[in-house]
Backbone:
């Protein structure tokens, strides 16, 4: 698909500067762009790339337009405008409605005529698949699952636990939704499984990254709010609630019954213990250990700095002596103050 | 299924207090329970919920019974009794014996007549599936795999590496058992793969969470003891041994050849390095780095506290100065003692 | 397959000492070896096992040969020689060329006549599978994917995103290659998905562990160099570059656009933030948080020591006081120096 610069500016609601009839048909980085590509400048550290770019148009903020002689789209938020342009040039591939002959569909499943079920899917009893939903190859929807309209399950997604997905959710390959939570009682040293009978509810516009897992609730439901985005290999335990538009980066784990607020941004490889409450608007940096509830928006961190191993070993040993060091400082302070008075 | 309170008490081996004929047919939290539900009180912090609950009966310890006017089941361990009650009301769904016509089964596989193999499974040569085992949709059992009686593989489980599962194991979706261990020699800067020819042995009553991976041994076997419970996204490397009834929470990784004792409880996001020995009865808190063997039962931890990022940055910088700080304290101590003597 | 000791020595390019006609047909540890097995001594801590081994031949360095009366293969690097011997005795199982009747193959896919596509695979449009490649059961190759000759995809592997694999790659079960990267712009508090249109390029001889995920690039490609080995549950984000022969252990995550050099060794459970550059030859110990670029080869670490929880709690509290402690030490130093001058 190609658009003239003038058409594109109109679609994106931007001003432009340059050749209105210039044809744009794709998106690329400043470095990789060739004729026909739109590119974007989001940080001044890419100014050198700007000078050399072959892009047909560059999206940038108003204050940068004088730095560039080529065609320009002016945007308040160039990154957002680039996202909108990319959505225009690379629309999601959608298959027309139907069921692949090599899918296995239970007669009680209700598949909308405009939904697509690809090869080697298993669609179990009482599953409901909404209009225009795309169920990719190898997906398994166990039983009593609801998939909202316009959802896309890419491939090899497994859904159990009476899960319900809202509209327009995107589920990457290898995701498991509705697996049993890690719930056991102990009987004289032996684990006794607690049946996990709650469900999983995903709101609208939820995106779930590859090989991420979301457990069903033990009794009540695990709840993922509208617009939540989860990266790859995230683990969401039973009865977790995640508020609207919260983002969680890769390899992060959230233990059972923790409630995370709206519009939070949780970095990668973060561990959040169970039964906590995290307020709206909390940002947590990568690899932090969230060991307590956070009742106020803000940016939080934990962790130790990377060093050459030889130096780290010396500091590492001292971490076990911190309490003792603090006591010795206190003793020194007392002695020195006494000495100061004596002298 | 419904039971009277008297029948339920008899099944669970509990005393009860209240209306013997009251019908119970499900389990719910104190807050969500409605008529017909059993609920439970495990911590005094839920006393407020107890007052308002609509549950038909509440399981609680003897010392709490006077706090509640409704029907009561008296239990030494209310959580365990709740687990047993939930097992009663929510028995596992089991399919009658047979093989789905859309499964692919090698003629040399031995599937017990009372086992169920669901759609789009691949059962390879010399695989043995025991009585009443349930192989969910999309599972792949490569070759020479043994699945004990009453096992349940939920869906999309992949088993390679001559693995053997005991009886009553439960394997959640996306699990990989018997993948190659991470074993390579180095030849002048190039990695040379070491064939992984050991197996994996899971005992009886092992539970494995969604997308968890368990590698086959390099030469001898990877061994998971009876009653071990592994949460989601746990990684067990080659030749690891895990003792009976040990529990490992989500996202934890255990490196090669480490032996973990019996009845250990390892938190989530823990990293355990290779070739260690962990004693029986060791508890490790979430996100701990287990960098050395542990020869004695106890509760172990590592990690740093979460803080506002601005404060953390200040302390973070100091972590690189710990050894220097310790030396400066020592120097000060010498000087101060000398001064004290001099004055 | 059996070889005489003389034949084996010739194959491996080693000297031997002992019975030239002794038959060897397998590999085992010193402890488990029985007659017919080759074993190996790589560390002096296994000397006790050497004395008792039933192995028919032991690979060892020249300086150890006098310690053992049995048959010996002399190797500069006994571990490497063991790897080569194991490859000899346990060649990879390869299926003859063809497509299983229960695979679903698009008519535009090009499968080499000498490649094997197993049951319940889905091979999409314009996929190319090279000679002798082995596509295991349940693999899904979406569209426009290239699999080089001699690659092995074990089972349940999902490949999207126009990925291209070089020759002889080994992909363990549950791996996802070419999933969408975690790319979103924010529009007044709502996430807007950025279409991920880059690809993934794996070089030759790349090995990818079970349930590892590798995202496609946002615009340009994610690139994994020749001979890279990735363990289980590793997460590689969009636009990461990994240099040749680098090894990454289990559960490690690499955030977007980070470039890792050649011949690096990254431990397990390491978190590497985005947009960093890591030099060639960098080693990072397990569970380290790589929060900044590393411009020089060396061994790097971060993290805190494991302790009994009761002691750890005391030190843990002090970590929040480090900056204050450092300031108090400085104040003490000033006071003590003043006192020393005064006395």
Residues:
């Amino acid at each position: 698909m190609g658009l003239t610069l003038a058409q594109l500016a109109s679609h994106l609601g931007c001003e432009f500067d340059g050749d209105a009839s210039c044809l744009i048909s794709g998106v690329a980085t400043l470095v990789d762009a060739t004729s026909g590509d739109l590119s974007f400048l989001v940080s001044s550290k890419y100014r050198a790339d700007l000078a050399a770019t072959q892009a047909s148009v560059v999206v940038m903020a108003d204050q940068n337009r004088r730095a560039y002689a080529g065609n320009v789209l002016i945007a308040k938020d160039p990154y957002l405008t680039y996202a909108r342009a990319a959505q225009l040039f690379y629309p999601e591939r959608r298959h027309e409605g139907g069921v692949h002959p090599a899918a296995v569909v239970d007669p009680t499943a209700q598949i909308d005529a405009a939904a697509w079920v690809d090869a080697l899917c298993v669609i179990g009893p009482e599953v409901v698949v909404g209009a225009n939903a795309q169920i990719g190859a190898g997906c398994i929807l166990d039983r009593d699952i609801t998939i909202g309209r316009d959802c896309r399950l890419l491939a090899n997604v497994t859904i159990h636990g009476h899960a319900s997905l809202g509209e327009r959710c995107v589920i990457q390959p290898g995701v498991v939704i509705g697996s049993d939570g890690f719930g056991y009682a102990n009987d004289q040293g032996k684990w006794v499984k607690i049946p996990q009978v709650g469900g999983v509810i995903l709101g609208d516009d939820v995106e779930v990254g590859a090989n991420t897992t979301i457990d069903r609730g033990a009794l009540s439901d695990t709840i993922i709010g509208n617009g939540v985005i989860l990266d790859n290999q995230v683990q969401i335990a039973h009865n977790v609630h995640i508020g609207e538009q919260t983002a969680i980066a890769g390899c992060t784990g959230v233990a059972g019954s923790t409630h995370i607020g709206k519009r939070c941004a949780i970095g990668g490889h973060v561990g959040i213990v169970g039964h906590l409450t995290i307020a709206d608007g909390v940002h947590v940096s990568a690899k932090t250990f969230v060991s307590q509830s956070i009742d106020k928006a803000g940016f939080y961190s934990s962790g130790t700095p990377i060093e050459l191993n030889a130096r780290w070993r010396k500091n590492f040993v001292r971490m076990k002596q911190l309490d003792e060091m603090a006591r010795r400082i206190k003793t020194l302070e007392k002695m020195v103050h006494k000495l100061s008075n004596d002298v």
About this structure: Residues 43 and 274 of chain B are 38 Å apart (CA to CA). Chain B has three domains: 3-89, 98-300, 317-342.
